[in-house]
Amino acid sequence: MAEAEMRAPRADATRNREQLLAVATRVFVTADAEPSMRAIAREAGVGIATLYRHFPTRESLVDAVYRDQVVRLTTGARELLARVPPAAAMRRWMDLFGDWIATKSGMLDTLLAMIESGEIAHAQTRTELLAAITTILDAGRAAGDLRSDVTAEDLAAALIGIFTVAPRREQEAKAGRLLNLLMDGLRPPPG
Question: What's the longest Cα–Cα distance across the chain?
């Protein structure tokens, strides 16, 4: 390997990449249509060349945002369980899931094309998300906080339904009410 290939990225390059990723995520959430790369660079306060140095194509940026959000969901389940009881962790994780759904609105066309072409393995993402849900459900069952007859697939379907009828950005209050109702249904019956 050449010396340049072995060197770790400079700290400022790493910060720039992280900033671009955070800004792109925020822009994708608030956009009605896919924003231009130039708009994302402008919002991040960097030149377009800096954006392209880190993400040479729109697809590479969408892929990075998508993977970052999946990691946040999967690690978020464990982190929440370490801090709060399982039922509270589940409710907070539902909000993370809603944020993930909202992020996809501004990159949907590119994301769908990437899934169709096989650039993003949708089945792998589904498996990772179901595992995160199962982690919380299992902890909730063990603690007596959550029903034992609910599967990760049940919960994923319910969440997709809620965020289809109440997209977070447009109807955050309604989505919150529906998520709270879902949580009530996930608790074991009294006695």
Answer: 67
